[in-house]
Each structure stands twice: as structure tokens, then as C-alpha cells.
Amino acid sequence: MDFPSELKYTKDHEWIKASGDEAYIGITAFAQQELGDIVYVEIDKIGAEVAAEEVFGTIEAVKTVSDLFMPVAAIVIEMNKKLDANPELINTDPYGDGWIIKVKLTDLTQLDSLLWDTEYKTLIGL
Asked: Which residues form the Lipoyl-binding domain (predicted)?
């Protein structure tokens, strides 16, 4: 399983890739493997400011539906439109074309509280 070292991770299995005050967010390879085949993603916070650890949407797999949690405080500015027709991109490319939302960060210091790849691997027992 791949966990890119340039990303930060959460205990809830989301990843974030920040550049300046914008960032992309998705779920980890571990999370998508645990969920199984992704069939639908719903984001109901476009344009809204979402606090760290608050739910920003849901992800539906064949057998379950899971909440998506915001890694840090941010304003949701975009959802990955490719997921409308191809939600399975999350399974095949969770760190690339399978990103879920793009955000504007409202508190950059919160990034410091997230996990590095090595810490995340320890969390999931790798």
C-alpha cells in the first residue's frame, strides 16, 4: 500500500495535500481498500466553511456508507467532478485523479497536528 510522504494524514483516514492556502483532500489507499468498491460520493458543503474533524460529505461503497471528515478548518471550494461519472477513481487512484475536494485553508497551523506517512502507517499497523 502506498502512502506518499508529501501528504499529511488523519486518524480518520483522509489525506491532505496543501500548497499555500489551498489543498486537495481525499481518502487513503487503506480507507478505500477497507471500504471496497466506491459507488457514490456526496459533498454537501460546497462554499461552506467546515471546522476540523467536522463531516463534509459521505462516501458510499457497495456494502457501506461512511462519513468524510475535514482534516483542518477550511472552505470547500470544489468537488472533483470526475467522481460524478467515475467514483471508482478513488479505488484506482486515491492520491491522484481520485481526490475528493479542493479547499481554501483557514488556519494553516492546523496542518502541524496531522500525521506524516510514517505515523499513519503505525496507526494502521504497517
From this structure: 22-104
